[in-house]
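Action item from last meeting closed. Structure (366 res):
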């Protein structure tokens, strides 16, 4: 029996519908939402009508688009097995993935636990005698910490985008700890930037562009320039106090078995004086749901700094590894804003995971 046959047989038992996703997909959703890591590695082409298309680089976005296009009811679960196309650093541009996407389940903790349990059960079906370990992070808890520290929106966005990418996150933390430098802007411009007056700043920029003989159509509009200048000012003018920076650094160092994570996070919140009640309540509910789902938590660890390099994740993220293997066999997480951004008429929560069949085959061959 082939691996594809084994996984297909398993997936048909998970109370989910099989979905057939076309290989050619509109490129814009991936370019807009899937993060720079994926943007740089997809294969683009063009339709006869001039629309930008790409070879399917992953399944989550296409499954969500298919769900929206079909006006399907929710909750709904979909499973898939198929080829995806993207450049990989370890070599190879075409490989197979399988997975499950769970859309519209109102009980988020239950859906998260079920996704984790399904991922582990799938690996057990494919590799019955192989021991795995799982790293789990939570984008929502991280963002709750940033909000509780009082960081402005620009900083929260920068740090959220850097979540899980060690070099980017380290650079951002270093910037947060540096002293604020002197502004190089003229007095009038600096005053408008400092007060966040985007309308006044755009008007001033338009006047300067006119005096310099620069047409607004030749590049970014005055409004776009003004918005970016205000956002950049937020990033360069805001600094965390040593106490707040130490709290954020301490949070990111939390790495404990999942069963101990609710207590560790609660102790951190009390020690740092941060109000994280809502995020921690949802985190604890997920852990309890995992126990109810029958998931063995002994091999699952919570890492507060762990994330995945896709911009659409909003909550739990996880990867499943085999000891001695640097690349995960499974990757997944929660993406509650994605379907709305893709055009859904109402908010639809989502969570899912994908497995790499070639990596499973490599482990099985050892």
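Sequence:
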């Amino acid at each position: 029996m082939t691996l594809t046959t084994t996984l297909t047989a398993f997936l048909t038992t998970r109370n989910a519908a099989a979905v057939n996703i076309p290989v050619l997909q509109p490129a814009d959703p991936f370019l807009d939402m899937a993060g720079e890591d994926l943007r740089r590695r997809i294969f683009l082409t063009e339709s006869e009508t001039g629309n930008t298309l790409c070879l399917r680089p992953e399944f989550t976005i296409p499954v969500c688009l298919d769900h929206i296009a079909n006006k399907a009811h929710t909750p709904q679960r979909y499973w898939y097995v198929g080829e995806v196309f993207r450049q990989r650093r370890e070599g190879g541009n075409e490989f197979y993935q399988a997975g499950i996407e769970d859309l519209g389940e109102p009980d988020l903790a239950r859906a998260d636990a079920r996704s984790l349990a399904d991922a582990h059960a799938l690996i057990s079906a494919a590799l019955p005698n192989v021991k795995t370990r799982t790293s789990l992070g939570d984008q929502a808890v991280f963002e709750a910490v940033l909000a509780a520290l009082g960081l402005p929106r620009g900083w929260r966005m920068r740090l959220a985008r850097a979540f899980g990418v060690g070099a980017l996150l380290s650079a951002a933390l270093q910037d947060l700890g540096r002293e604020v430098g002197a502004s190089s802007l003229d007095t009038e411009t600096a005053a408008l930037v400092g007060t966040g007056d985007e309308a006044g700043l755009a008007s001033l920029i338009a006047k300067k562009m006119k005096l310099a003989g620069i047409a607004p159509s030749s590049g970014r509009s005055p409004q776009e320039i003004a918005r970016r200048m205000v956002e950049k000012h937020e990033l360069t003018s805001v600094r965390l106090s040593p106490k707040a920076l130490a709290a954020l650094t301490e949070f990111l160092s939390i790495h404990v078995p999942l069963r101990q994570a609710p207590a560790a996070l609660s102790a951190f919140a009390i020690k740092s004086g941060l109000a994280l009640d809502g995020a921690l309540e949802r985190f604890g509910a997920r852990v309890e749901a995992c126990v109810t789902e029958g998931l063995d938590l002994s091999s699952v660890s919570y890492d507060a700094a762990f994330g995945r390099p896709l911009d659409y994740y909003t909550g739990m993220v996880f990867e499943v590894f085999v000891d001695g293997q640097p690349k995960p066999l499974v990757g997944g997480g929660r993406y509650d804003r994605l379907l709305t951004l893709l055009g859904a008429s109402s908010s639809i929560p989502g969570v899912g995971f994908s497995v790499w069949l070639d990596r499973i085959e490599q482990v099985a061959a050892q």
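Note appended to the action item: The first strand starts at residue 17 and ends at 18.
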